[in-house]
Amino acid sequence: MTGQQRKVRFAIIGAGMAGLLAAIKLKQRGENFTLFEKAAKLGGTWRENRYPGLTCDVPAHAYTYSFEPYAEWRAYYATGGEIQTYFEKVAEKYGVLPHFRFGCEVTGAVWDDAAAHWTLTLASGETFVADVVIAASGVLHHPKMPEIEGLDRFKGAAFHTARWDDSAPIDWAKVGLIGCGSTGIQIVTAINKRVERLVHFQRSPQWVMPVPQFEYTEAEREAFRKDPALIDAIRYNQDYINAVLRFTDGVTDIEGPQMREIEDICRQHLEDSIKDPVLKEKLRPNYRAACKRLIYSWCYYEEVQHPAVHVETGRIARVEPDGVRMTDGTFHPLDTLVLATGFRADRFIRPAVVKGQNGRSLDDFWARRPTAHYAVTLPGFPNFFMLNGPTGPVGNFSLIDIAERQWDYVMQLVDHVEGGNGRAIAPTQTAFADYEERRIDAAKKTIFGSGCTSWYLDDEGVPATWPWSYQAFADAMAKPRLEEYELIG
Comparing 9-142+344-488 with 143-206+292-342, is the CATH topology the same? Predict the structure, then answer.
């Protein structure tokens, strides 16, 4: 650092897991920051989703900030409500809430080349000036509604899972459930014994990885409170770490032993668990394991065999006022229709209008596909940093760990701005183009590009993911390659 030290103003967009992380870290540094959240409270994914059966597929003790273990988890895998409570308690403990502005949606962000700062516009019309923007808006927050004829004419309750309707008939009702990703499968396990009939409409079945689930006793939680080393023994358990590495190594070496092991486990789990041969074939995917996000479940195969559950693999012709008609003429009468149809995973900070150097819009930059340099920065958008942005690692592991590693990377870049070496920093177009070319080439060879359809794929069928190992990501985040960046001003 050779320039004059200066403090900068930060704006954080989003009060989910990553935004809260940024706020805590900036407060610890003594920085000037404001966090803007469009909703009335924090939580992100865990605030938006409240459907029955909502559970994280990362062990609870591994799904915490590294600096804030939590002794109160009720079970090995935590419910969504518990995770929301955890984030609320963390925000209170670290005293960041006075910096949060709830009910403040950011609708635009414009870079001023001359002043070298960002001007954010809120939905209210108010503006806010910041030197650095941290985009922590997340991925899964724009519900994707299915295009099905007649959906708007259904007489019963019909809603997306991220807009769960507590007043909708579930108990002793005829319920239709469209979608069989993690959400749909968790809902099956939660309501199958409550309904009169549950019709689970599956476009394609999922591979299921069996995992253990057990409750912690009050005595165990008391032991965790007294000795955090007992928590570390769980969240840094070698079996869990090996499972993460098996996954990340397997998806990038699709003919290697790790992927064969994953496929063997999933295949054998199906064979051993489903007794009815007709149902077994309905639940057998025609693509390779992990091509779609793996389902981690300790009970799905058991619960889907409940007599109230009917797995429907035919094509939907249309929704009628009283139910769903299939193309073969079959009609399923329904009281409630639940749409577990996922999210628009290409939105990120959008629909906010972001304009960088020379007025270039983010929509133009992302016209072909959402992307970012090492999933964090964008050429032509100085002092604009993304947490869990496009092309980052995805899979069955903790995104908190991903965000923490990205945060360390971001702050090393910010240090050059605060150190007076320049007023702003951004990757060069050349460095970004090289990264993107290498990433696309590698991504096509991962398991995500092996032939299924999933929300991991962009409009051209290229996996929008980090295509290398977990260790390669950790190494990349440990220290930015400054020759790939330019200091501005």
Answer: yes
- Grouping H, G, I as helix, E, B as strand and the rest as coil, residue 422 is coil
Q: Using an 8 Å Cβ cutoff, are 177 and 338 in contact? A: yes
Q: What is the per-residue pLDDT across 9-18, written as a single tens digit (0 to 9) for each?
A: 999 999 999 9
- Three-state secondary-structure class, residue 49: coil
Helix (H, G, I), strand (E, B) or coil at 23: helix
Q: Is-contact 413 487, C-beta < 8 A?
A: no
DSSP letters spanning 238-275: HHHHHHHHHHHHHHHSTTSHHHHHHHHHHHHHHHHH--
The answer to whether the beta carbons of residues 290 and 207 sit under 8 Å apart is yes
* Residue ranges per structural domain of the chain: 9-142+344-488, 143-206+292-342
Question: Tens of pLDDT along 448-460?
Answer: 999 999 999 999 9
If one looks up domain 9-142+344-488 in CATH, what number appears? 3.50.50.60
Residue in this structure with the two tokens 């299921």, named with its chain if needed? 208
Give the model confidence (pLDDT) of 434-489 as tens digits: 999 999 999 999 999 999 999 999 999 999 999 999 999 999 999 999 999 999 98
What pairs with residue 253 in β-bridges? none
Does CATH place domain 143-206+292-342 in 3.50.50.60?
Answer: yes
* CA atoms of 398 and 82, how far apart (whole Å): 16
Angle at 286 between CA 283 and CA 292, to 5 degrees: 85
Residue 111: other Cβ atoms inside 10 A: 24
Give the Cα separation of 110 and 411 in Å (integer): 22
61-94 b/e (C-beta count within 10 Å ≥ 16 → b): bbbbbeeebbbebeebbbbbebbbbbbbebbeeb
Q: Which of 208, 247, 206, 450 is nearest to 340 (CA)?
A: 206
- pTM score of the predicted model: 0.96
